[in-house]
Amino acid sequence: MSASVSNEVRDLFDRYVRFLDDERYDEWLDLFSADAYYGVITHRDWSQGTNYVIVGERKPKLAERVRAGAREDIYRKMHLTTAITPMSGEPGAAVANFALFKNSVATFCGRYLVWFEGTGEAMRIAKWMVILDSDTVVDTVFLPI
To answer: Does residue 97 form part of some domain?
Structure first.
């Protein structure tokens, strides 16, 4: 990745949040490669290198979480992303700030760290890590953040 983030990377971030917000979960899952990893961890645990993940799943298990979570998490959701930039020293990776609102209340915020494979229409998410700024998880994580 160059010093700036490509339009295809920005587009993938946009589709990631739009598909979640619009409850288009099958399309959201299609953004991931077949063996992709999705994780959620607090900033403290990430920076200390622990493996105390809140969620840590490969795509098949993630698909099950989405199906079950869609029945449980009934709140309106809106994601905001900012500062999508290449990840320093990581070719094919990007970082962005995010906030997730549920029923107009800020519920989670932090950073997305994302590794990609492929380019253009074939670009898929290989790994998506959600690093929560808070050390306290204030809501059950039924659906992806």
So the answer is: yes
Cβ pair 66, 25 in contact under 8 A: yes
The H or E element containing residue 101 is strand 93-102
Tokens of 109: 């915020």
CA angle in degrees (0–180, nearest 5) for 107-110-116 = 120
Tens digit of pLDDT per residue, the chain (145 long)? 445 668 889 999 999 999 999 999 999 999 999 999 999 999 999 989 887 888 899 999 999 989 988 888 888 899 999 999 998 888 899 999 999 999 888 889 999 999 999 888 889 999 999 999 987 777 778 888 9
- What are residue 112's DSSP bridge partners? 96, 130
Q: Tokens representing 81?
A: 């992303």
Q: What is the pTM of this model?
A: 0.89
- CATH code, 72: 3.10.450.50
Question: Can you give the residue range of the structural domain that contains 36?
Answer: 7-132
116, exposed or middle or buried, with CB in 10 Å at 0-12, 13-18, 19+? buried
Closest CA to 113 of 99, 101, 125, 100: 125
Token pair recorded at residue 75: 């709140």
